[in-house]
Structure formats: C-alpha cells, structure tokens
Design brief:
Elements: E1 3-5, H1 22-28, H2 32-41, H3 44-50, H4 52-56, E2 59-61, E3 74-75, E4 83-87, E5 97-99, E6 102-111, E7 114-119, H5 131-137, H6 142-150, H7 154-157, E8 164-169, H8 171-175, H9 181-187, H10 189-197, E9 200-201, H11 207-211, E10 215-217, E11 223-230, E12 233-236, E13 239-247, E14 250-255
Parallel strand pairs: 8-14
Antiparallel strand pairs: 1-2, 3-4, 4-5, 5-6, 6-7, 8-9, 10-11, 11-12, 12-13, 13-14
Helix pairs in contact: 1-2
The structure holds 2-acetamido-2-deoxy-beta-D-glucopyranose (6 copies).
Length: about 270
C-alpha cells in the first residue's frame, strides 16, 4: 500500500518504515525533542499514542502529490474523516496550501512508502460533522443554533458537499447586543437572515486563508474586513476569532462579537 502522510514536523522523513504509530512518526521527523516535549506538555502525547484514529486521519492511500491538490478537494484517509485541501492564490502568502487548516510547509518530501506532506499543526481535533451539527452540539453556540434554525438556514449549512466559512458568535457575543435587539431579530426573519448571512462566506477561509486576506465578500453581499497580526490573532471587523473548528463542510470561526452589516443600525 502506498501511503501519503502529513505530520507535525519541520523537516522531511528520510526513511519512513511502515506501519508507524503516531509517536514513531513524531520521533522520526523534525526536531524530535521539541516535538515530543511540546505534545507532552499539551497533554496530547498520551491521547495520540492511544488514538490510532488521529494517525489514520493523517494517512492517505495512494500517492497524492501537491500537483493534484485543488481548492476544496476532499482526500479520503485510511480511517478518519476526509482531509480538506485549500489553495490560497494570494500573492503575499508564505503558505498557500492547507490540509484541514494546517499549513503545508514542506511539500512533496519523498519517503520510501510515498510522499510526505509536511504540515505545521497536528490535524486535531478531527472534523466531526457539518457546521450545523457542530453549532448544535456546542453549548457555547446555542443562541446561534436557534437563530440559524429560525432563519431557515439549517438545510444550506448542513449540505454535505458545502464549502462554507461561518463566523460563529458565542452566546456571550449575542448577550453583548443592546437590550431587545436579539429578541427583535428572532421575530423578524428578514433582518435575522440579513445579519446571519453576513457571517457566512461561500468559500472556505481557515486561519491561514484569513491571515492573508483583507476583505472578504459575505453571502449577505457586503464585505467583512480582516486584520490579523498572526494566525492566532485575527479580527473580523470588530470581532476577535477565539477558535477555528474544521468541519466536514467547511470551517467555523468562533467569534466574540456579533457582526452587524454596515447598512443596519440598532
Ligand atoms: C530544536 O529544539 C531545541 C530545544 O527547543 C532548540 O534549542 C534547537 O534550536 C532546535 N533545533 C532546530 C534545528 O530547530
Ligand atoms: C462527534 O459528534 C457526535 C455527534 O454530535 C458526538 O456524539 C461525538 O461525541 C463527537 N465525537 C467527538 C470525538 O467529538
Ligand atoms: C465554552 O466556553 C468556555 C469558556 O470560554 C470554554 O472553557 C469551553 O471550552 C467552551 N466549550 C466549547 C465546547 O467550546
Ligand atoms: C465544493 O467544492 C468542491 C471542489 O471544488 C466541488 O466539487 C463542490 O461542488 C463544491 N460544493 C458546492 C456545494 O458548491
Ligand atoms: C424587519 O426587518 C427588515 C430589515 O431590517 C425591515 O425592513 C422591516 O421593517 C422589519 N419588519 C418589521 C415588522 O419590523
Ligand atoms: C469586497 O471584497 C472583495 C474580495 O476581496 C473585493 O474584490 C472588493 O473590492 C471588496 N469591495 C469593497 C467595496 O471593498
């Protein structure tokens, strides 16, 4: 079986032998001391060592060289969810390819068994369901889940073949709205849809994509403005991105403030 593996690393694997546990992989690549001690500190080491699923989600059968990577291509893995590829054609971007949001830093390294696509993050947690199943199962996003349901956007955002970005305000973000505004929105589907679609992009912009962007067109029609000092520090208009969550039909960015379209005033 030919394998492509994408692992946390700073350098190529010279002589990969199969099968490997994820810890074997981590020990064979990059700056192993830093790698293992960092993952240990994060409490990830033990979880990954026992969690074959995470390794399987990094393994692809068949050779998939970078030349075959296209935007929003879904690559099936040995035993995990598909890997979503994104290609960002942005001139100033240092990283233009991502795999489930992880940046490809060392493409097409050749190992004995196939290609190694070296990425800068472990793809974890793994995508688990659509954008809608994520917001309905996340306690911090229950107000958003209610709003999405009221606006009749559930079918769209659960489309299995979708390629969406959703900026997802937390319950706390909704509670920062002036008194009465949320109740008013929940009673007026036109206004609610206007606000919610301003949180949706019809393309997948993960943290890497956002980091290299400045203006992005929303489904509502108006643009949002992106300002980022790093991939971990991203502002969308006046909202801070708190977390990035990969889903099977796109990416969700948890934000701390509700985005209001420029034409709306409360
Ligand atoms: C490897 O990690 C050690 C400890 O953090 C660091 O001192 C060293 O510079 C790193 N080496 C490389 C090649 O990154
Ligand atoms: C995946 O989603 C399902 C359904 O929402 C949930 O029951 C399960 O705990 C999730 N698994 C993980 C690993 O988060
Ligand atoms: C919800 O928010 C709290 C506080 O910010 C955080 O500790 C927790 O991990 C969040 N839960 C989920 C499911 O994201
Ligand atoms: C998502 O992107 C893929 C790859 O370009 C494409 O095949 C698919 O049709 C897109 N989905 C939708 C709903 O447009
Ligand atoms: C609902 O919202 C729309 C768009 O903001 C507005 O034009 C309309 O007057 C509102 N309807 C009611 C009944 O308030
Ligand atoms: C909105 O964003 C798009 C995509 O970046 C850009 O081409 C367009 O010029 C922007 N429009 C405005 C009014 O800023």
């Amino acid at each position: 079986m030919k394998l492509v593996v994408a692992v946390l690393s700073l350098a190529c694997v010279a002589n990969a032998q199969w099968p490997l546990t994820i810890i074997d992989v981590l020990e064979k690549v990059g700056n192993e001391t830093t790698l293992i001690s960092l993952t240990k500190q994060a409490g990830l080491y033990n979880r990954l060592n026992g969690l074959g699923k995470v390794l399987e989600a990094h393994l692809v059968t068949g050779k998939v060289p970078i030349v075959d990577w296209t935007n929003d291509k879904l690559i099936p893995t040995v035993g995990g969810p598909n890997i979503r590829i994104n290609v960002y054609d942005i001139s100033r971007a240092a990283i233009t390819l991502t795999a489930n949001g992880a940046g490809v830093v060392n493409p097409d390294c050749h190992a004995i068994a196939g290609f190694v696509q070296v990425i800068d993050l472990v793809m974890y947690p793994l995508p688990n369901g659509t954008i809608v199943s994520e917001i309905t199962s996340n306690n911090n996003l229950s107000t958003l889940a209610t709003a999405v349901s009221k606006a009749g956007l559930v079918a769209t955002l659960s489309a299995v073949n979708g390629n969406f970005t959703l900026f997802a305000p937390t319950n706390k973000a909704f509670s920062k709205l002036p008194p009465g505004v949320l109740d008013g929105l929940l009673k007026n589907v036109t206004a609610l849809t206007n606000v919610l679609t301003y949180h949706v992009l019809s393309d997948v912009y993960n943290n890497v994509g956002l980091y290299y962007s400045s203006k992005l067109k929303t489904v509502q029609g108006k643009n949002v403005t992106i300002k980022a000092s790093s991939r971990e520090s991203i502002m969308v208009n006046n909202a801070a991105v708190l977390a990035e969550i990969s889903t099977t039909n796109g990416v969700l960015h948890v934000i701390d403030t509700v985005l209001i379209p420029p034409t709306m005033h409360f």
